[in-house]
Amino acid sequence: MTFQVETGDRSDVVDVTGRVEETVPTDVDRGVCTVFVPHTTAGVVVNENESRLRADIERGLERLAPRGDDYAHDAIDDNADAHLRAMVLGESVSIPVTDGSLDLGTWQSVLFVECDGPRTRSVEVAVVQY
């Protein structure tokens, strides 16, 4: 299943937990849900969906790979920092499924992290029962 995420800024953290949860079939007793972002300048993580932490994620990524830091790739499309940030974040997460629901911890959410927006992005979700 694929759904779209609209981002509003160059860096943006969007909680997609509910949208991912909607894709999990209710008849899956035990399984795994993989969330995949097919983009080289965006990522997905599991972390707490708290406004100050989302801002901290954005600031931390900026410190890790500052924009305009004389990257060779910037000669092509001026977004090397976004590629580097996305590489650190990763393009997928896997979450256990129990009784048709994501088996996340109390404070865990699935967060889509935009590094080169604003854009319309795709998120792919696959659930396998075992």
Automatic annotation (TrEMBL):
InterPro entries from the UniProt entry? UPF0047_YjbQ-like (IPR001602), YjbQ-like_sf (IPR035917)
A Pfam family reported for this protein in Swiss-Prot or TrEMBL: YjbQ
Q: Which SUPFAM superfamilies match?
A: YjbQ-like
Give the domain of life: Archaea
Q: Which family, according to UniProt?
A: Belongs to the UPF0047 family.
Q: Which NCBIfam families match?
A: TIGR00149_YjbQ
Listed name of the protein: Secondary thiamine-phosphate synthase enzyme
**Species of origin:** Halobellus clavatus
